[in-house]
Design a protein that fits this description.
about 200 residues, mainly beta, 8-stranded antiparallel sheet, 6-stranded antiparallel sheet, about 45% strand, elongated, disordered N terminus, signal
C-alpha cells in the first residue's frame, strides 16, 4: 500500500512508501515570477531514495548484511521538470544537494544514468537536525538545455548508488535521515527548493 503526502510549497515533501521496501520519493516545487507576458515557469524536482539492505544481490544479499543507498530520477513520476516553458526560456545553474548522515559515501552511476549530472561529491557543508549531523553531496547538471516551446521541459535523469558496507539495524536507526535541496535559475531568477528532513524507512 502506498502512502503519499503532497505539497506545492518548497518547504514540504512527498513521501511514498513501498510494500517490499520503503521507497521515499521527495518532490519539491517552486514557481519563478512571470517573465514578460508568459506564465510563471513551475519547477519540480522529484527524487527516489531507495535502500539496498538485505534485499538484493547488488549489496550481497541477506547473509553478510551489506547495505547501500540509491538516489534516482529514473522511476515513474520522478524527474526534474520545468512546466510552461517557451523556446526562449533560459534554464541555468541546475544542481542538487543530497544530505545524509554519513560522510563516507562513494557514489557511482547505475543503469539509466544519463551522464548529464556530475557524480555527487561532498561539498563540505553540514547541517544539524535532531542531534544528528547531515553532510551534503552535490551533483550538477552539465548538459545543454533545449526548452520545449509552450510545454514541459524534462531534464535527463540521474541514478546513483553508494558503495556497499557493513551495517547493523541499530546503525541504520540513525543513518536513515536525509534531506534534498535543489536549485535552478529560470530566466535569471533563482529557484531554491528544499524538501525538509525525512526518514528513509
Amino acid at each position: 500500500m502506498l502512502h503519499s503526502e503532497n505539497s506545492r510549497a518548497p518547504s514540504r515533501r512527498t513521501l511514498v512508501k513501498g510494500a517490499a521496501w520503503s521507497v521515499p520519493v521527495v518532490a519539491i516545487a517552486g514557481a519563478a515570477p512571470a517573465v514578460a507576458a508568459s506564465a510563471a515557469v513551475q519547477c519540480t524536482h522529484t527524487t527516489t531514495w531507495r535502500w539496498y539492505w538485505k534485499k538484493t544481490p547488488w549489496c550481497g544479499g541477506k547473509k553478510n548484511k551489506k547495505s547501500g543507498l540509491e538516489i534516482n530520477t529514473t522511476e515513474f513520476s520522478t524527474g526534474v521538470r520545468f512546466s510552461d516553458t517557451l523556446s526562449t526560456t533560459a534554464i541555468t545553474d541546475v544542481y542538487a544537494d543530497f544530505w545524509f548522515t554519513r560522510s563516507d559515501l562513494a557514489w557511482s552511476a547505475a543503469p539509466g544514468n544519463s551522464g548529464c549530472w556530475t557524480t555527487p561529491v561532498l561539498t563540505g557543508s553540514t547541517t544539524s537536525w535532531n542531534g544528528m549531523t547531515l553532510y551534503a553531496y552535490r551533483s550538477t547538471f552539465t548538459c545543454p538545455v533545449s526548452p520545449v516551446h509552450q510545454g514541459t521541459t524534462v531534464l535527463p535523469a540521474y541514478r546513483w548508488q553508494s558503495q556497499c558496507y557493513d551495517a547493523t539495524e541499530k546503525e541504520w536507526e540513525r543513518a536513515r535521515w536525509a534531506r534534498r535541496t535543489a536549485y535552478a535559475t529560470v530566466n535569471g531568477v533563482p529557484q531554491p527548493l528544499d524538501s525538509g528532513f525525512f526518514a528513509i524507512e
